[in-house]
UniProtKB/TrEMBL annotation:
Keywords, in A-Z order: Nucleus, Repeat, rRNA processing, WD repeat
Pfam family name, one: WD40
Subcellular compartments: Nucleus, Nucleolus
The protein, known as: U3 small nucleolar RNA-associated protein 15 C-terminal domain-containing protein
Amino acid sequence: MDYEAGEYQKLAIRQYPARALRETAEGRYWKQFKAPLVAQQVGAVSHIDFSPVYPFHYAITSSTRVIIYDANTRQVRRTISRFKDRAYSGCFRRDGKLLVAGGEDAVIQVFDANSRTLLRQLKGHKRPVRVARYAFDRLHVLSGSDDATVRLWDVSAGEQVARLTGHTDYVRAAAASPLSSDTWATGGYDHVVKLWDLRAKQAVMTLEHGAPVEDVAFFFAGGLLVSAGGTSALVWDLVGGGRPLARLANHQKTVTCVALSPHAGPDSAAAPRLLTGSLDGHVKVYELDSYRVTHASRYPSPVLSLGLSPDCGLLAVGMADGALSVRRHARPKPAAPGTPGAAPQKRARYGPKLTAANYRYIVRGRSEKAAADDVRIAAQRRARLAPYDRDLRQFRYRAALDAALASGRPEVVASVLGELAARAGLSAALGGRDEASLAPLLAHVARHIADPRHTRLLAGVAHRLLDAYGSVVGASPEVDHRLRVLRERVACEKEDELVFTKEALISAQHALKASSHELSHTKSQLADLKGELGSTKSQNESMRREMLLHKRSLDAAHNQLHDREYELRASTANGFWTSSE
């Protein structure tokens, strides 16, 4: 491109190789769940459930309360506290109007989700009810209890319909099949998952999980089931007779909860995803074609519950210390129109068609498309410059660096610093700063100095800053805090480097020991082989001597035979001559 005299050339932003191994489209999608709102509850958040209908409010169960949050504001909408003891498993009905919850007092309660009115109390269990779910027909509730029984209830009549026995320990999980209201799956601490046919009132399939089962969930087509317990989650093929398809053993501690989303992930690869939460503080996302982990998030406390809204706009995670983390995605996915979980569709607006008889046709603006016989005149447009480009153009170096820092892009800051160094303006940009302008620069240096792409450049900037402002250390608490953060970051990086070097030396030492052991083993093998060769040589020598003795014996026998033959011939000849005479 040819530039005219005096024309400013835009700053070329540094380009770095793509970090394909460190960040993928899947990782970028899940990292867009930002702005976490952390609400501290009075007890552990044991369950999270999203309403199936727009706007997807969510209910969390903690201590003796079930709290309904507004999905738009993420603030408390309703609080249901009519529990005598601890509440469990607050879940919405399919239409989002009613909510059912179990409790430590062995009573199942049904509430109006809008008015908090108590509508039904279902009594019959002998011990705490840890799980309660609405059926897809909206008329029945299934419950599981620590009394090892599963019960089906008619909500309208308030009566028990069926009592299912088969578990031998606490029942902690239940899920309704999307194919039939008569098919349910339950899991318990007896290490098994049972598939129930409510028409026959008995279990039609028993799946051995191998550990206490904490949660179960059906896949959307209903042919697959996932169970969580121990340090793994198992995917079962129900159509194929209950055979295990995959064991997802990617957690270090007990897997406490699972969640399924029909179309999570980036737009280019939107597909069903499985999420698991564990006591190790991790939430992991699985792609369901190969069952591999595509993303993992770390939380500060053991994860007890999680939920993902139907439009993939909110990700809620409940923890053992009572913290509730709710993250919002930048671009929620619209639910299918006409479904219970669909947001209202906005009607498209169309303006009136313009004709030559319309006054607006005569005074139409610049956005109007040119007609076939119109003459197009290209307008000279001035180049749109970024704020740091405008400052560099006017030689305002300190303002240019501040504008680059305000962009939040480390590659832009690196490019501006490189341009300032080339113009010999780095000292002018770094010097003469007050507390308000120095703190963002120190924060940027501390945040990115460990990045290998910026380490050399930012290390030089850090040295210049320490030389320029070392004499005023202690005058500003904010600057002192930033300097301490920078020192700790550099110390951590050095410590990590030392640890890495130590691990490398230990690995080399182990490899050397292994090589030494292997060499000793080889030497012993060679010594054994040498001994075997010596023994073989001795055996060969003995055999040679035996063969030599045997040969001598044969020679002696041969000589004896020869002498005997000679004697026989001589005696025969004497007899012949005697007879002739």
